[in-house]
Amino acid sequence: MVKLHSVLLIVAALGMTFLLASPAVADWNEGDPNTKWVQYPDLTPNGIDVKVTAPKILADDWLCNDPRPVTDIHFWGSWKFDEGPTSDPAFRIQIWSDEPAIGQMHSRPREFLWEATEFTWAAREYYKLDPTGPGEGWYDPNTGEYLPSTDWTIWQLNIDVSKNPFYQVEGTVYWLVVQAWFPDGTQGPELGWKTCDPKSHWNDDAVWADGELFPIPGMQYDWRELRYPDKHEYAGESIDFSFVITVPEPGSLLLLATAGLGLFLLVWRRRN
After folding, report:
1. C-alpha count within 13 angstroms, C-beta hemisphere, residue 175
2. Which end of the chain is more exposed for a tag (fewer CB within 10 A), N or C?
3. Nearest to 234 by CA among 203, 197, 193
C-alpha cells in the first residue's frame, strides 16, 4: 500500500511542477478568457504616444470586475521616431486606490497599494501602420510638445507579475501607474504609452505627474489630467491609455491550491 505521506508529496510536487512549467511571460491576444479589463489601442493616425519615460509618471483608472488576483499586465506603446533602445529599459508598475472626482477636481490616484517587485516582461511587435501614410503622434505634457507622425510601429509589452500578484476587491476602482527608465543610467530613446481607441474610454481622464515612482505608502504626486493637445483631431477631449489586466487561468488556481494543500498536509502529518 502506498503510504499517505508519499501520496501527499507527489500531489504537492505535481502542483508545483505544473506551475513552474508555465510560460515565463504570457502574451495576450484578443478573446483571452482570462481578461479582467481591456482598453484597446488606437491603431489609427489619431493615436498618440504620451511620454512615459522617467521622470514622467502616467496613470489610468480601471474597474475590478473579477475577484481573482491580477497576474499579468499588458500595455501598448511606441518609441519616439521608432528609435528603439540599445539597452533594456526597466519599468515601475504600481496600483493605487482611487480618489473620485469632486466638483471641478478630476479623479486621481489616491494611495499607493502595490508594486510589481518580482516580474518578467517581454515585448512584441503588435501592429504597423502603412509606412507611406501618416504615423501616430507624440505628446509630452510637460512641454506641451505635440508632434504628428513620429512612429509607425506599435509594441505590446507583456508584464508577468504572477510571483507577487495583486489581490483586489471586486467592484473597486483602481489606478494602473507606470514609469519607464533605464537602469544603466543612460538617457536612451523615449517610450510613449499608447492612447486607447475612443470606444474604450472609461470613467475619468488619465493623469500624469513628474518624479521618481517610489513604492512608499502615503507618497503623493501632483497629478494633472490628460487631454488631447491642440491641433489634434480630438483636441480637448479626454485621454485614456491602452492596457489589459488579466487573471490566472482556473487551472492555475487549482494547481496552486493543490500544491499548497499537499505541502500543508505533509507538514502537518510529520508534526503529528
Report:
1. 25
2. N
3. 197
**With contact defined as beta carbons under 8 Å apart, do 34 and 249 qualify?**
yes
Q: How confident is the model at residue 260 (pLDDT cuts 50, 70, 90)?
A: very low
The neighbour count for residue 118, using CB atoms within 10 Å, is 9
Q: What is the DSSP string of 112-141?
A: EEEE--S-EEEEEEEEE--TTS--EEEEET
Which pLDDT score is estimated for 255?
A: 53
- At 233-242, the pLDDT tens digits run 999 999 999 9
C-alpha grid cell, residue 28: 495576450
Write down the pLDDT at residue 221.
96
pLDDT score at 8: 36
Any idea what DSSP says for residue 204?
S
Q: What is the pTM of this model?
A: 0.84
Closest C-alpha to 245, from 71, 28, 114, 73 = 73
